[in-house]
UniProtKB/TrEMBL annotation, chain A:
Protein's UniProt keywords contain Transcription: no
Keywords for the protein's UniProt record, in alphabetical order: Cytoplasm, Initiation factor, Protein biosynthesis
Pfam families documented for this protein: IF-2B
UniProt lineage: Eukaryota, Metazoa, Chordata, Craniata, Vertebrata
Domain of life: Eukaryota
Protein name: Translation initiation factor eIF2B subunit beta
Record InterPro entries: eIF2B_beta_subunit, IF-2B-related, IF_2B-like_C, NagB/RpiA_transferase-like
SUPFAM superfamilies attached to this UniProt entry: NagB/RpiA/CoA transferase-like
Transmembrane regions listed in the UniProt entry: none
GO molecular function per UniProt: guanyl-nucleotide exchange factor activity; translation initiation factor activity
Compartments reported by the entry: Cytoplasm, Cytosol
UniProtKB/TrEMBL annotation, chain B:
Start-end of Basic residues biased regions: 1-10
Database matches in PROSITE patterns: W2 (PS51363)
Name of this protein: Translation initiation factor eIF2B subunit epsilon
Similarity remark: Belongs to the eIF-2B gamma/epsilon subunits family.
Taxonomic placement: Eukaryota, Metazoa, Chordata, Craniata, Vertebrata
């Protein structure tokens, strides 16, 4: 029974992925970037599409949704996983509509009236069986994967439009996207980068080493010096963990400080964020929004007696409201925060916002 | 085409280990082989006790799985059925689990040594394995340690047999178990352990000089280490346990290896980590601190809200100030969850409660106006209104009635009912098991028959509950650990660790009190040695009397004892004198009349005079001996009249010289009591007689 073997293999893979998510989390330690996380999720979803038994698009969507729910529950702070699940669901909807011959595009441009009337009927529409649907969905997921592979490069390619010679640029912590962005610009232009170290994890140090190796003039500052240095800065370029539905950010601790300082000095704040970081989540969902990790970095365990006397917290993320952000640079170009809602509706189907 | 994703997924840790062709194995000992958690562990094995609402063994398995262990052998003994059931239901035994769990049960395991001997007998391990207990909570990544271990084994041909994982944490840290406090001397370059000693509160420690004489030129003597009870062992460890059947614990093993290093050529290494968390829940004190560390997220990513056991409905949410709420928790009006609170699913809490630093299990009901501070409430507990609980453990199914107050370090074991209107004093342990049934169960403590438990319950039913102890409607007995054992074992039975009856001071952890504790500790060991020596001497003499051993042999034995306990010659004499003079009391009790006493003693003195003569040679020796005699009779002041006879006899037997006696009499009067002693008529007469005798002899000499 090779089929059964394959299926147990698949469930094993899913379990392993879930366990990894639980143990991994994000923000600390030598973890995989969210780009890799997005790719892994998509690989897994493609495998689920290929190997599980389903007869119609509705079945498949149900399977994907179930697995997606488990994946997001395993690590709520890792929004990329949920985003990828939503992308795949959207792909299935589109492929189904195409197989039926109707254009999903027109349905997408729903009027308020249509939204109200179409209600719960949509699921039933997916019951029809199409033989080539599987191949088509897998093909589309492959396209999504190619898109994911290219995101960082696509963003980096736009660097020359934003960074000019002899500018002073500030960034905070370490973001692979920003690093690639700055390095790309450094091939043609000469500029100075100031990196806020981003205590207590101090990923900024890593970032600075990476940049200086690429021949960029780099300065590391303490987080407390952000405001003091800001007056000299021409541009702030940061990465983020998630772009929220309202155009705000959920980014590494200390980003809010940078954003406020930039606002005070009217320095433009540019966020490099690939599209897969765009999440339909709003910042009011308190329970999953914050992530607290081991307080070890703030007050080491070796301290001894004092630890029983104090409470130590070590949050990982900051919320940055959309008012403080000037521009988003994604793999499909630059957008203002107010435009995020539009991108959202292009990427995800409204019914998939809640898995 | 999907296989590509598969290869990527495995993660870097696993792939490195897979290069070593064999899967990483672990031996998990799900038994503590002691009764520290009695009476709680009478109903539930320690490994299944909930910590943060998850059984402890799950933490250990999660730790092993996350470090990449692919095969785990779980050894259970006490209540093995329960552990087995738990594991079979858990996610570890699902076919998709990356860590294959084998459960091995036997009633015959009495120690870690037995388990490892069985591992060897069954040849379960083929490669390096990780050895842990079922109550270790950790998130340390041991892959680094494992690599170092393997490297060492590759470089010097299997000389290193074990790598122990320690965590750096300075003394005074609350998660340091005082009983496990160790001093380690190690080679700083190779991380080889040169000397390993449990401090056990000692202030003076001795290091053999030879450990510093060979090997490299850099040494570290460290006391800032927390024993995580995680060790990476080579298969040789199991073999060594088989070869040395007297090894019971890892401590025995380590000491044995270090002592025999020259002969066997095995070495033990150390891996000290600063990151991560690792501790063993070895008593309730540790339970308290590990729980609070867990809630304070020190063990991240193993946190309560992660629901790593994958059980339905176990999930909870985490909000600010480390407040965790399970599904279906209801909180009454005006109730406050201050900080570091974990509440399990379907628990309801009444109005105006005040909860801080506590863990509450599933399906609990808590009334109004309840104050909980550092309380550990397990599942299905019913707490009525106006209850106050401080730093206590309340086990499954317990009922706490109105207006009960649990002071610090109380324990309510399974299904106990308490109250109403009662205040339990500090350190009270209440259990449904009568303490006396303990003795009866002593022999078959390791048989985990449910029958037997039920049987004993029937017995306890017959004994009435004491309303003064558990309240008018209470059910349960005050539990007292059996006291007949020696002091050490009594301590070992204490639930809350070394602090048996904590003074209010010592609990507030003020430095002054700690210092005073330290001081008392620093004195005690010497006294202990002397006491032990005294007992040994007594034993030797007794045996000598019974078996009619020649005095020369007695001397030989005492001499060897002298070296064993490191006693000075002066002390030997004093102790010897003391023992001999007290011997009649030992035989007949202290109610002897003076006449009986002397009657018994004098023949003894005659018999043992060669022994005395052997030790009392110099003039100073005579004086020391006399002062010992004096000391004894000062204590036994009812028998002062016997002193003369003793001195007389000793003089006659030529143990003591007359000059010495005279010198002693004329000098040495320091205290009032000794002066009074010298005014004793008999003594004065004796002295007078002695002086005359001396005069005579000197006259004769002329």
């Amino acid at each position: 029974m090779p089929g059964a073997d394959k299926e147990t293999d698949l469930t094993e893979r899913i379990e392993a992925f879930l366990a990894d998510l639980k143990r991994g989390g994000s923000g600390t330690g030598p973890l995989r970037g969210s780009g890799e996380m997005a790719r892994e999720t998509t690989y897994l979803l493609r495998r689920i599409t290929a190997q599980t038994r389903w007869s119609s698009a509705g079945d498949l969507m149900e399977i994907i949704r179930n697995e997606g729910r488990r994946m997001t529950a395993a690590q709520p702070s890792e929004t990329t996983v949920g985003n990828m699940v939503r992308r795949v669901l959207k792909i299935i909807r589109e492929e189904y509509a195409r197989s039926r011959g109707s254009s999903e595009e027109t349905e997408q441009q729903e009027s308020l009236h249509k939204l109200l009337t179409s209600g719960g009927l949509s699921e039933e529409n997916f019951r029809q069986h199409f033989a080539p649907l599987k191949a088509n969905v897998i093909e589309a997921i492959n396209e999504l994967l190619t898109e994911l592979e290219g995101t960082t490069d696509n963003i980096a390619m736009q660097a020359l439009e934003h960074i000019h010679s002899n500018e002073v640029i500030m960034t905070v912590g370490r973001s692979r996207t920003v690093e690639a962005f700055l390095k790309d610009a450094a091939r043609k232009r000469k500029f100075h980068v100031i990196v806020a170290e981003c205590a207590p994890f101090c990923q900024g140090h890593e970032m600075a080493t990476g940049l200086s190796k690429a021949g960029i003039e780099t300065t590391v500052i303490a987080d407390a010096a952000i405001f003091a240095v800001m007056s000299r800065v021409n541009k702030v370029i940061i990465g983020t963990q998630t772009v929220l539905a309202n155009g705000g950010l959920r980014a590494v601790n200390g980003t809010h400080t940078v954003a406020l300082a930039a606002k005070h000095h009217s320095t433009p704040l540019i966020v490099c964020a690939p599209m897969f970081k765009l999440s339909p989540q709003f910042p009011n969902e308190e329970d999953t929004f914050h992530m607290f990790v081991s307080p070890h970095e703030v007050l080491p365990f070796t301290e001894g007696e004092i630890l029983s006397e104090v409470n130590v917290h070590c949050p990982v993320f900051d919320y940055v409201p959309p008012e403080l952000i000037t521009l988003f640079i994604s793999n499909i170009g630059g957008n203002a925060p107010s435009y995020i809602y539009r991108l959202m509706s292009e990427l995800y189907h409204p019914e998939d916002h809640k898995l | 085409m999907s296989s590509r994703g598969g290869k990527q997924k495995k993660g870097n840790v696993a792939s490195e280990q897979e290069e070593e062709e064999q899967p990483l194995q672990a031996v998990l000992v799900a038994d503590s082989f002691n009764r520290r958690f009695f009476p709680i562990s009478k109903d539930q094995p320690r490994a299944l006790l909930p910590l943060g609402n998850v059984a402890m063994i799950d933490y250990t398995l999660e730790f092993l799985t996350s470090t990449g262990v692919q095969e785990t052998f779980v050894f259970c003994c006490w209540m093995s059925n329960k552990i087995k059931d738990h594991l079979l239901k858990s996610k570890w035994c699902r076919p998709t689990s990356p860590n294959v769990v084998h459960i091995i049960t036997s009633d015959l395991y009495r120690s870690l040594g037995d388990v490892l001997r069985d591992v060897d007998a069954k040849t379960l391990v083929r490669n390096d394995f990780i050895l842990v207990y079922g109550d270790v909570v950790s998130n340390i990544d041991v892959s680094q340690a494992l690599q170092e271990h393997r490297h060492r084994r590759k470089v010097d041909k299997n000389i290193s047999v074990m790598t122990m994982v320690f965590k750096e944490s300075s003394p005074g840290h609350k998660s340091r178990c005082e009983e496990d406090d160790v001093i380690v001397a190690m080679d700083s370059k190779s991380k080889r352990v040169l000397h390993y000693q449990k401090t056990q509160g000692l202030k003076k420690l001795q290091f053999p000089m030879n450990i510093f004489q060979h090997g490299s030129d850099e040494f570290e003597v460290r006391h800032d280490l927390l024993d995580c009870h995680i060790s990476i062992c080579s298969p040789q460890v199991a073999e060594l346990f088989t070869d040395n059947f007297d090894y019971q614990t890892r401590n025995d093993f380590v000491r044995g290896i270090l002592v025999n290093e020259e002969i066997l050529g095995n070495q033990i290494h150390l891996y000290v980590t600063q990151d991560g968390y690792g501790a063993r829940v070895s008593n309730l004190q540790m339970y308290d601190s590990v729980s609070s560390d867990m809630v304070r997220r020190w063990v991240y990513p193993v946190t309560p809200e992660a629901n790593f056991t994958d059980q339905r409905g176990q999930g909870c949410t985490h909000s600010r100030h480390n407040v965790y709420r399970g599904a279906g928790v209801s909180l009454g009006h005006g109730s406050q969850m201050e900080e570091n609170v974990l509440i399990g699913r379907d628990t309801s809490i009444g109005a105006n409660c005040h909860i801080s630093n506590s863990v509450i299990g599933n399906n609990c009901t808590i009334g109004d106006n309840v104050v909980l501070d550092r309380g550990y409430i397990w599942n299905n507990v019913d707490i009525s209104s106006n209850v106050e609980i401080h730093q206590s453990v309340v086990c499954d199914g317990a009922v706490v009635k109105e207006a009960v107050r649990l002071n610090k370090q109380c324990v309510l074991a399974y299904n106990v009912e308490i109250g109403p209107n009662l205040s339990l004093p500090e350190g009270t342990v209440v259990s449904m098991h009568h303490p006396e049934e303990e003795e009866e169960d002593d022999d078959d403590e390791f048989l985990s028959d449910d029958q037997e438990v039920g049987h004993s319950k029937d017995k306890t039913r017959q004994k009435a509950f004491n309303p003064a102890e558990v309240g008018p409607e209470g059910k349960g007995y005050i539990w007292k650990p059996s006291v007949d054992d020696t002091e050490d074992e009594e301590l070992a039975q204490c639930l809350w660790g070394l602090v048996l009856n904590p003074d209010p001071e010592s609990d507030s952890e003020s430095e002054a009190s700690e210092e005073s504790q330290d001081r008392s500790r620093s004195v005690s060991p010497e006294i202990d040695d002397v006491n032990a020596f005294q007992l040994e001497v007594l034993g030797t003499l007794q045996r000598g009397l019974e078996e009619n051993i020649v005095c020369d042999n007695l001397v030989l034995e005492i001499n060897s004892l002298k070296y064993a306990y490191n006693i000075t010659l002066k002390e030997v004499m004093q102790i010897l004198t003391r023992v001999v003079l007290e011997y009649p009391f030992q035989l007949q009790g202290t109610q002897l009349t003076t006449l009986q006493y002397t009657g018994l003693l004098l023949p003894l003195l005659k018999k043992w005079s060669p022994v005395f003569k052997n030790y009392i040679k110099r003039a100073q020796d005579h004086l020391d001996c006399l002062s010992a005699v004096e000391e004894l009779f000062l204590e036994q002041d009812t028998h002062q009249t016997a002193m003369v006879k003793v001195l007389m006899k000793m003089y006659q037997l030529e143990i003591l010289e007359e000059a010495a006696i005279l010198k002693w009499f004329s000098t040495g009067t320091t205290t009032d009591r000794s002066r009074q002693l010298r005014k004793n008529k008999g003594l004065q007469k004796f002295i007078q007689w002695l002086e005359e005798a001396e005069d005579e002899s000197s006259e004769e000499g002329e």
